[in-house]
Structures are given as structure tokens and as C-alpha cells.
Amino acid sequence: MLKPYYEIRRSLSFFRSYIGSARIIPQSTGDLIICFHGFGSRWLKGNSLYKATVYELKYTLYIIRKYFSIVTLEELLHESKKNNRQNRLAAITMDDGYSSILNIMDIFYSVNVIPSVFICPNLIDNCSVPFPEIIRASVFSSSKVILNCQFLNKSISLWRNNEKRRAISILIEIFKNYYGNKLKENLCILLYDLEVSNEQIQSHEIYDPLLSWNQIDSLSGDIHIGSHTLNHYHLSTISDAAAGQEILNSKQIIEKRIGRSCDIFCYPFGNQNSFSTREIELIRGADYNYSVTLEPSFISNKCGKFEIPRFNGLRHLCKSFK
Q1: CATH superfamily of 5-125+208-320
Q2: Residue 118 pLDDT exceeds 70
Q3: pTM for this predicted structure
């Protein structure tokens, strides 16, 4: 059976990334952190940067192991400041803590890799997912071809897949400005405008539920847990008090739940607009040792403890060095 056109195109795109990485990585200096989100058996039209295939994971690990020693994130961050090291180090991280992680753990076992997973305790307790995942799944679940809603200045076409992806990007940027009850209310309005139900969203192939606490406990020793805030809000757009609660309370809840220290924080969204001096001081005050971003770069001695860069897969690495 022939693969759908989109899967063929993504396969070719990843192959170019694989070749590009083989060229870039040997010429680079510094350590490397790769980020994943969810995993699936095939490339999906709506989650190109957020759901990697098993194929992509295997080849990412293959090329990294060729040039780096893969260690835990904690080991890498501890060793990264040391001078005159002969070997370069790499670590694997996974943001949000999607349950599809369970399907690929055998791959990590086979190469003796312990990844770090950054989780949002409130979302786990509420059996929910980060709001960008809800937006992606709701847009692709909808049968509407035109979206009209109060959040947009004009109508947006949802006829083609690329138009749906554009609409998703616009909506995520808008919804970064909401949190708490306002975020919940506006998500309900969006679902109403798209004429989709929660049941439709949760049954769509894009939707990936989060790990439960029991599942996290079952992976004890196989993964390391870090904080990704309580609710995956965009920290830069919320109040000082709300940001402080997201950062500190998530650490406290995680440590109580897993019975171990939670020393590394991961900024939701992770780009330069996602954090500032305020967030860094709140993280420092909450007694985290490090925080990681999604600013694409290899790690050097110049990297601050609370601005550690990562690449969102090999494609992110290649795009950063074009």
C-alpha cells in the first residue's frame, strides 16, 4: 500500500535532515540536548514538530551515538562546565509527558538511554493536555472549511491541511495570552465555533493523552522527571504571583508525588519570548539547579544555568544552521 503524499514528503524531509545532521554535527563543538514531545507510528499532518515517528527516534539516536556519549540530562549539565573533556555529551528530553512515551521505551532500553521527561502536575490531575494540543486536535477534528470566531480579525480557511496548520499557529499565539478560567472559557468557545466535542478531540489520531501518575511510577528509574509548570501557561503573559505558583508549586507537587528531588525546569514553548529575567529569578528562588529552553544551539561554557539550549529534533538542528 502506498504511503499518503504527506508521509512521503515528511520522509524525504527527515532524510534531508539526517544527511544535514551528519554534516553539521561533526563540525560543531559543544554538547547537545535533543527534545521530543509525543511519538507515533507514522507522521501526522497536524503535529509535524510534536509527534515523531519511531523511525525518526531510532535514526536520531543512531547519529547522536555516532558522535556523542549519551548520558542523563543531569550528568550532561554537571559535566558541561568542565574544561578539557575529550568526549562530547548528549542527552534526550521529552516535553509534556505524553503517554505515547510508553510505546517507545524499549528503544531507549536497547541503547541504555535514560531520558528526562518534563511534566505539568495539574494537567495530569485533571486528565487534560496542554492547550496547544487541544487546539491542534480540535482544528483537525472539525469538518468546517471556514473558521469565524471572536478571537480572529478575519475568517480563516480550513480547506487544506496547510491552511489548518496556519490556523493552528495563529490560534496558539492568541491563546498564549489566556490562563486559568479565561483559558478554559475561550477553549470552550473555540470548540463550539469549530463544532467539535471533547469526545471527537480525544478520539482523533493526533490527540495524545498525558502519562498518569501510576504510569510515571511504573517508569521509575527509567526516566528522570522535571517540571514544565503546573498548567503549561505562557509564563511571560501571566502575573508575577501566577508565574511564581506555576514554577514553585509544580516542583513541590512533583517531589511529593515521585519521592525524589525535581531540580530541572523546562519553559513552556521555550523560545526567547517565553521567559525573561523575571522567570529566571523565580526559578532560581524556587531552588531549581537548571532550566532548559528550545533556543537552538549546542551547549558552550557561555550558556547560563537557566538558559540551557536544546534542539527540537534533527530537523530543528538543520534549520538552525542553514
Answers
A1: Glycoside hydrolase/deacetylase (3.20.20.370)
A2: yes
A3: 0.91
